[in-house]
Amino acid sequence: MKAVAAFLLVLCYLAASHAWSCKEAPRLYNAAQVDAGLGKVIARDTSGYAYLLIRTSWYRLTTSVRFKHVSVGSAGIWGADTSNRAQKFIAGVFRQSSGTNVQQVDAGGAGQVVGVGTSNHAYCLRSTYALAFAGTGSLSWSYLGRTLRYYSCSPLKGCWGVDTSYRVYYTQTIVPTSCGTSGWYQISGLSLKMIEVGSDGSVFGLTTGGKVYQRAGITSSNPRGTGWSLVSMCMSVRHVSYDLGNLWVVTTSGLLMKCTH
After folding, report:
1. Cα-based distances in Å from 149 to 8, 73, 82, 195
2. β-strands 121-125, 113-117: how paired?
3. What is the pLDDT of residues 155-177, one digit of tens each?
4. How far apart are CA 86 and CA 137, in angstroms?
5. Among 7, 25, 12, residue whose Cα is nearest residue 255
6. Cβ contacts of residue 136 below 8 Å, gap of 6+?
7. What is the pLDDT of residue 17?
8. Is 253 left (phi over 0), alpha (psi -120 to 50) or beta?
9. Quick one: pLDDT at residue 19?
10. Could you tell me which of 178, 181, 229 has the C-alpha nearest to residue 202?
């Protein structure tokens, strides 16, 4: 396994674009998903276990719960477990909530948690509920009146999502305390199966064919950007996340990479 990973990385170096330099991240075998926020990195393997990166080592956060998706951000560490229940990491353990079922969550907003339900309905958990949840009781999620398969929020730069037809949408505001939105706008140009936005507003998306694109032209006056720029990768990609200048990439073969400019 180590020899194969090393060979694939050599190919990646040879095929790397001028803009990004990728190397193997601290090794996590059979990586399936990664999420980065506020300087922290969390990942999930193909068995559904959640791990937190501390320095150069991955530490499993639980042996009793398996997840479909995990996220870290201003709302803390959250996950959607294999029974589609939202769980929050509290005092060293995950605590399961009751209420709305979710299969994907994102904690990267300004205190709110957003999620996708089992019927692909988009939900938002108000910051007051998310931050106060201490491990007991039912959480009251707000339905946003939109169907999405995946979405991600930034503390100050809005939220991006993709629907079940792989169309891309953007909303400049989801109010953390009320979950009210400023309206969703369709972004043309690419069909994506997932999308992630960093705390600085940088946006990366993944096509159904496993190619990575970055949204170009994002400014304070034009937060939706102007187009898409290919991020060259030598292997098909399964998942991406971005935080503080680092692009974290999970390949379809389960290799975890860390890319920088």
Report:
1. 31, 20, 16, 10
2. antiparallel
3. 989 999 999 999 999 999 999 99
4. 12
5. 25
6. 95
7. 47
8. alpha
9. 80
10. 229
Where residue 62 falls (left for φ over 0; alpha for ψ -120 to 50; beta otherwise) is beta
Q: What DSSP assignment string belongs to the chain?
A: -HHHHHHHHHHHHHH--SS-EEEEPSP-TTEEEEEEETTEEEEEETT--EEEEETTEEEE--SS--EEEEEEETTEEEEEETTS-EEEEETTEEEE-EES-EEEEE--SSS-EEEEETTSEEEEE-HHHHHH--S-SEE-PEEEEEE-SEEEE-SSS-EEEE-TT--EEEES-B-TTT--B---EEE-S---SEEEE-TTS-EEEE-TTS-EEEEE---SS-TT-SEEEEE--SS-EEEEEEETTEEEEEETTS-EEEEE-
* CA–CA dist 167, 192 (Å, integer): 7
